[in-house]
Recover the amino acids of this structure.
């Protein structure tokens, strides 16, 4: 419910949804208390820590400035060597390229959390330093809108202050919940991902990204395309979505599940719940370009989706910073399945000393992607 207008600041733009339940708030409050208590007198402090907020709690000027900065990155030339992928056009494509390139090692693996934390931070830095964004990376507060995700200002389609709405409906031979099978390239065996048709499928026709031109991807396809295995060739097209309400709420993206995930006792249970449920269902709700496991970064909402996952991780870490900041769980590849580039390499567990490939020659160690208030990063989720 919107706050009454007599309260002129803070809550004025808050857009409602399902309030945070007490058990989640206890976890978030503990994270805030422990994180702020851990900060030193220098570097990252209580006074200079940046605050990543729900998109639904930003004011319109901050929302417009963020979207302006995304368009600004889309208008700047790429820095990645185009011999790696001739379809790379702009600064957003730099991010999509490395995400495609690393997909088979940074999902369903030990690197999921640190790689994406580093990745989001690089995007936030690019928005701020290259395009003058005044705010910080927002998150898609999807538990709050599990009753109807389209009630969130992320998706409500209001020009300039949302990420637009659903894609235009496309005719197909099935219901919205029927699935197609998409082939994930790059493994020693074929891996098929079921993907619902959803309720759209075509171009996003409203909001600030209606005229966005994508180039890289898609990568996951109904049939293999050996000539363009990773979607690196130029493929100019609109941004597509196909909302699937059966994934946006109901038994899925609810406060109850959010609380259960963040309350997990160990990193294995935490990553399992986060990746198997929250991550998968968030992407599947959006559908279209945002649900391609390799190039979902083509949808600018990707970064808000992953900020919510990073937020859950930060809250989980924040229950016990000493014991949990560097906790890692998972293999070195997707479910430990060998890559077709190294078919005889047996599965092995990721360690925090392993290097990660972040693009443009940046290869930090995994442990460097784990704290949120060290190594140059200084942010918290509120
Ligand atoms: Cu990813």
């Amino acid at each position: 419910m919107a706050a009454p207008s007599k309260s002129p600041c803070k809550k004025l733009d808050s857009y409602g949804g399902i309030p945070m339940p007490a058990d989640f708030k206890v976890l978030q409050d503990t994270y805030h208390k422990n994180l702020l208590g851990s900060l030193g007198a220098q570097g990252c402090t209580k006074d200079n820590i940046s605050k990543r907020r729900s998109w639904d709690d930003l004011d319109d000027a901050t929302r417009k400035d963020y979207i302006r900065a995304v368009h600004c990155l889309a208008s700047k030339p790429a820095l990645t060597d185009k011999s790696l992928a001739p379809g790379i056009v702009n600064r957003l494509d730099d991010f999509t390229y490395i995400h495609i390139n690393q997909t088979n090692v940074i999902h369903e693996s030990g690197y999921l959390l640190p790689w994406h934390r580093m990745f989001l931070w690089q995007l936030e830095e690019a928005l701020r330093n290259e395009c003058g964004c005044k705010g910080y990376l927002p998150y898609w507060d999807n538990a709050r809108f599990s009753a109807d995700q389209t009630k969130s200002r992320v998706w409500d389609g209001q020009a300039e202050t949302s990420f637009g709405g659903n894609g235009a409906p496309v005719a197909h031979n099935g219901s919205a919940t029927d699935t197609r099978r998409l082939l994930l390239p790059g493994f020693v065996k074929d891996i098929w991902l079921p993907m619902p048709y959803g309720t759209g499928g075509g171009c996003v026709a409203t909001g600030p990204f209606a005229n966005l031109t994508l180039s890289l991807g898609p990568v996951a396809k109904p049939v293999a395309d050996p000539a363009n295995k990773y979607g690196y060739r130029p493929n100019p097209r609109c941004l597509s979505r196909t909302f699937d309400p059966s994934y946006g709420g109901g038994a899925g993206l609810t406060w109850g599940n959010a609380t259960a995930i963040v309350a997990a006792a160990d990193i294995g249970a935490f990553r399992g719940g986060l990746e198997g449920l929250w991550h998968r269902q968030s992407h599947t709700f959006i559908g279209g370009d945002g649900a391609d496991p390799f190039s979902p970064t083509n949808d600018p909402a990707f970064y808000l989706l992953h900020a919510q996952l990073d937020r859950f991780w930060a809250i989980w870490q924040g229950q016990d910073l000493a014991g949990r900041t560097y906790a890692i769980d998972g293999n070195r590849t997707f479910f430990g399945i060998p890559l077709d580039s190294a078919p005889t390499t047996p599965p092995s567990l990721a360690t925090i000393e392993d290097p990660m490939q972040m693009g443009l020659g940046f290869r930090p160690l995994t442990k460097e992607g784990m704290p949120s208030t060290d190594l140059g990063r200084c942010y918290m989720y509120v």
User: Anything to note?
Assistant: The pocket of copper (II) ion is lined by residues 99, 106-107, 116 (CB under 6 Å).
